[in-house]
Design a protein that fits this description.
By secondary structure, the chain is of the alpha+beta class. About 30% of the residues lie in helices and about 30% in strands. The longest helix is centred in the N-terminal third of the chain and has 20 residues.
Length: about 250
């Protein structure tokens, strides 16, 4: 795994908590972010990857094995920081995402991201993956990090949460530049490698093309051949899930 990526250990009972509100920003900085947002919005739409949403998502402030604390921020701010990584010095955003490994009866799903996606375009990923939004926060500020994962499973792969067993957090991987922080989780399903792509074709969205289920015996070769086209957190997640030896 690239040393530029930061891996955070997570305990099985790790908790996520929103502890502060979103800070106000100077007008000049807000205008700069608006320009970056509009440019990114137009580029993604022109590339056929859909429209960027204007909702709010969770961002981490502190990360320890037992707790992640943070706040809710505008997705617009996150896009601006992805577009201009130097903004991290001012915004200090670590957008939280849920990702990881689905272990099927005989393989592991992988999907290629849209070539015009705002983040990691055209790369192979262990689906599903997505941000943590305010719908996962209760009245006390506690964040249910498993709820977004179940939502993404159904939306992206067409798999109902009743067909999935959420086992445990694996680790969190913070990306250089964007500082997106993926919470990796192992989940298992009794579905076969043929049934998962079938569910994706019938009920999932178009975020991944293609969506494959790689047999366990072929996984190492597939990941090696994917090379730089594989999102780096996948190496940490599949190792922590016990699917392959640590490199």
């Amino acid at each position: 795994m690239n040393d530029a990526f930061t891996m955070h250990e997570l305990a099985s009972d790790m908790a996520v908590q929103v502890t502060r509100s979103m800070p106000d920003l100077p007008a000049a900085l807000d205008a700069r972010m608006e320009t970056l947002w509009r440019n990114a919005f137009a580029r993604v739409a022109a590339g056929g990857a859909g429209e960027l949403f204007t909702a709010r998502v969770c961002s981490a402030d502190t990360i320890s094995p037992t707790a992640i604390t943070g706040h809710v921020t505008e997705f617009r701010r996150i896009v601006a920081q992805i577009e201009d990584p130097a903004l991290f010095e001012v915004l200090s955003l670590r957008p939280l995402a849920v990702s990881g490994v689905v272990r099927c009866a005989d393989g592991v799903p992988v999907g290629r991201r849209h070539p015009a996606a705002i983040y990691q375009p055209g790369m192979w990923q262990l689906p599903p993956a997505g941000g943590v939004d305010p719908s996962a926060i209760d009245a006390a500020g506690r964040v249910d990090s498993r709820a977004p994962l179940l939502h993404e499973l159904e939306e992206e792969l067409g798999i109902s949460g009743t067909r999935i067993d959420l086992v445990r957090p694996l680790c969190a991987v913070e990306h250089p530049g964007s500082h997106v922080t993926d919470i990796g989780m192992l989940r298992t399903t009794e579905l076969t490698g043929a049934q998962v792509p079938d569910a994706h074709r019938r009920r999932g969205n178009t975020e991944y093309d293609p969506l494959l289920c790689i047999p366990f015996n072929d996984l190492s070769e597939f990941l090696t051949n994917a090379g730089a086209d594989l999102v780096p957190p996948a190496a940490a997640f599949r190792s922590r899930a016990g699917l392959l030896a640590t490199n």
